[in-house]
Amino acid sequence: MLRLTLHLVFAANFAVSPVAGSKDKPASNCRNPSALYEEGLKDYDQKFTKAAIEKFEAAHKCSKNPLILYNIGLAYKRLYDAEQQPDLLHAAKKALVEYVDAIEKDPALGADPEEVKPVLAEIDAEIERIRPPEVAPEPEPPPPAPDPVDPGKSRRLLGIGLMSGGGALTVVGVAVSAAFASKGARLHDQLNGAGGIYDQLEAGGCGLAQPEDAPGADTMTCDALRGERQDLKADGARANGVAFGMMAVGVVGLGLIIGGAVAFAQGKRATAEWESSQRARVRVLPTMGGLVLQGRF
């Protein structure tokens, strides 16, 4: 406080006239800067700090005397001590920095800048103390862990597909094979059964070829029976071929059913082992020192 009083009195000696060489001219419509300054001193002494700041700033604006900046800076600092508003501390620093710049540029002002630098250092320390801590950006959350994959699922699905396909092939193969086998049996009866083509050929004296016909046999009737025989044999061969082919399809379908059942069983077993490994397995074992938990957690 002693240094503050000395500087306030010192600044008052220059409050009434602008500094030599200053490029800023006092405002033409100002009140008497000396009177403003004296009122500011009184307000400051009576702890009316805000009023003192207004008077000091008005006196500085009118006189352009940089020595008043010291009074302004200290007044802002006192107001900060009372209200703890950071902008007041920055205003104090601004005024004092301008004060130091002015007296360093013009030694004729008769002030020592070194006397103010400890106050500036104190202000800088306080600014650093109240500076809000830098908020580190929140780290990005780790990517979600992939869902555990059931190793047996694909095999179970493969097994289901094979059994479904194999079942369809087996049903179709057996049904079609049975139908054509039945047709082949009917054709066989038409050829070899009682009253069939072979019986009719024999009754008409017809041979399997024209030269084998008996004397007096009706050639046209024999040729018709022989033609019908050939047609029935060809139809029978086709029916038997389709029946055997579709039986083979049924056998393939049965193989697919067996393979699908095996794949499904393997997949189910793999799934069961995997699910078992996912669960915690803990055993309590007695020891000399007590009980021990052992297993996978």
Overview of the structural elements:
The two termini are 70 Å apart. The chain is mainly α and 297 residues long. The chain has 9 helices and 2 strands, in the order H-H-H-H-H-H-H-H-H-E-E. Residues 1-6 and 8-24 have low confidence and may be disordered. The longest helix has 60 residues, at 219-278. It folds into 2 domains: 2-130, Serine Threonine Protein Phosphatase 5, Tetratricopeptide repeat (Alpha Horseshoe); 153-296.
How are the secondary structure elements laid out?
Layout: H1 2-12, H2 33-45, H3 49-63, H4 68-83, H5 86-105, H6 117-130, H7 153-192, H8 197-203, H9 219-278, E1 281-287, E2 290-296
Antiparallel strand pairs: 1-2
Helix pairs in contact: 1-4, 2-3, 3-4, 4-5, 5-6, 7-9, 8-9
Number of E-state strands: 2
> What's the tally of helices?
9
Biggest sheet details: 2 strands, antiparallel
C-alpha geometry: rod-shaped
Strand content: under 5%
* Cα-based radius of gyration, to the nearest Å: 59 Å
* N-to-C SSE string, H for helix and E for strand: HHHHHHHHHEE
Spatial strand arrangement across the major sheet = 1-2
Mean pLDDT: 81
User: Could you say how many structural domains there are in total?
Assistant: 2
Percent range for helical residues? 55-70%
**Cα distance spanning the termini:** 70 Å
Spans of at least 5 consecutive residues whose pLDDT stays below 50 are 1-6, 8-24
Helix-strand category: mainly alpha
